[in-house]
Design a protein that fits this description.
The complex is a heterodimer. Chain A has one domain: Protein Transport Mog1p, Chain A. Helices cover 25% and strands 39% of the residues of chain A. Chain A is built from five helices and ten strands. Chain A has helices at residues 2-14, 16-19, 83-95, 151-159, 172-181, and strands spanning 23-27, 32-36, 41-48, 54-63, 67-75, 99-108, 111-119, 125-133, 136-144, 162-163. The longest helix of chain A is centred in the first third of the chain and has 13 residues, at 2-14. Chain A is globular and about 45 Å long. In chain A, 41% of the residues are buried. Chain B has a single domain, classed as Beta Barrel (OB fold (Dihydrolipoamide Acetyltransferase, E2P)), CATH 2.40.50.140. Chain B is α+β, with helices and mostly antiparallel strands. The two termini of chain B are 28 Å apart. Chain B contains two helices and six strands. Classes of the chains: A alpha+beta, B alpha+beta. Chain A binds chain B through residues 2-3, 6-7, 9-10, 13, 22, 24, 35, 101-102, 104-110, 112, 115, 117, 125, 127, 149, 151-153, 155-156, 159-162, 172, 175-176, 179, 185-193, and chain B through 20, 24-33, 41, 43, 46, 48-51, 53, 55, 57, 65-69, 71, 90-91, 93, 101-107, 134-138.
Chain lengths: 197, 138
């Protein structure tokens, strides 16, 4: 009986999108891989930089009935902006009109950044990570739309990012200095290397 | 003697650095000071890089089913601990212990799991080995 109820719930929660499966996509030109629930649409667009200018950006996205999955790579190599300025601007832009529920240090391999949870004004929930690496802003955002229940998929998407260039946006001494300024390690955090320290 | 010391130092450095290399990312989004238990039915077990995921349907207080996402280690790490891609199959009733997400949404980091036959995987008291997961200093 319970199994029947489970299968019915699966069917109700599924729909056409559920028939597709998650797959890892690799973008060596931009040194990352990420998993999407379907073939992503790839667009070249512009990204509003912190200094008021705009820079070129690539957006990889999938939109479904329940959620949106978007990876943005903005080329800030010629913008001459500090990492903390880039990251703070991205946080401000992403959380505009919504509520920033979580804003904590993040790390993928040896690349350090920030991780956010945002409650949108429309009731959506976003799981976001931001990294400034090799002159690029990497912004990965999984959004559960108000009409859907895709929080699990949003988290899965955001956590799937891998940098493939095997490099770091920190040098060992810099990590230590940042940790010292932050007053020691944050338990459960990516404390050292935090771009906002 | 000096050669032995150099070899020992090199080995120690490798071991120290490999801890950080094991963990793909930080686990700061999960609250390591909190623990939650979930009793539900497996919807999907995704044996994937960089981390495996369990998607489980859990009844909420209104009797509706909510989907929870539980993040595990990578397939290599899980294999060494005895897991296989078939350890969990859809429809299987399980009990999970997790470190919940800090933002209160339906997700967590895997600590332990009890299979229908009572077999326990992981350790609900100690949680997963994170391999330098959070602090990230190589």
């Amino acid at each position: 009986m319970r199994l029947i109820a489970f299968m019915l719930a699966l069917f109700a929660a599924g729909g056409p999108a559920a028939a597709q499966s998650w797959k890892e996509y690799s973008y060596p030109d931009y040194a990352f891989t990420v998993s999407f629930p379907a073939e992503p649409k790839i667009e070249t667009t512009t990204y509003p930089a912190a200094d008021g200018g705009s820079v070129s950006a690539r957006v990889y996205s999938v939109r479904q009935d329940t959620g949106e999955f978007r990876m943005t790579v903005a080329d800030l190599s010629n913008a001459g902006l500090e990492e903390s300025v880039v990251i703070d601007n991205a946080i401000k832009t992403l959380s505009q009109g919504g509520e920033l529920k979580i804003n904590i240090p993040a790390r993928v391999s040896r690349v350090f950044g920030r991780q956010l949870s945002i409650l949108g004004a429309d009731g959506s929930r976003s799981s976001v990570a931001l990294f400034y690496h090799e002159g690029r802003l990497y912004q990965i955002e999984g959004k559960s739309l108000p009409s859907g229940n895709a929080t699990a998929d949003a988290i899965r998407f955001q956590q799937s990012l891998i940098f493939t260039d095997n490099s770091s946006n920190r040098v060992p001494g810099e990590r230590g200095q940042r940790r010292d300024r932050a007053g020691g390690r944050e338990r459960g955090g990516a404390g050292d290397g935090d771009p906002r320290h | 003697m000096r050669r032995q010391l150099v070899a020992f130092a090199a080995g120690a450095a490798f071991v120290a650095s490999s801890g950080a290399a094991l963990a793909h990312h930080s686990f700061a989004m999960f609250d390591a000071d909190q623990r939650a238990t979930l009793a539900g039915t497996v919807k999907e077990f995704q044996w994937s890089n960089p981390h495996a995921w369990i998607f489980v349907m859990v009844p909420n207080k209104d009797g509706q089913l909510d989907q929870w996402a539980v993040e595990l280690g990578g397939p290599g790490q899980l294999s060494r601990q005895g897991w296989t891609p078939k350890t969990l199959t859809p429809g299987m009733d399980v009990k999970l212990t997790i470190h919940p997400l800090r933002d209160g949404t339906n997700g967590g980091q895997f600590m332990a799991l009890t299979l229908p036959d009572g077999t326990q995987l992981g350790n609900p008291d100690r949680g997963p080995r994170q391999g330098g997961g959070a602090d990230g200093a190589p």
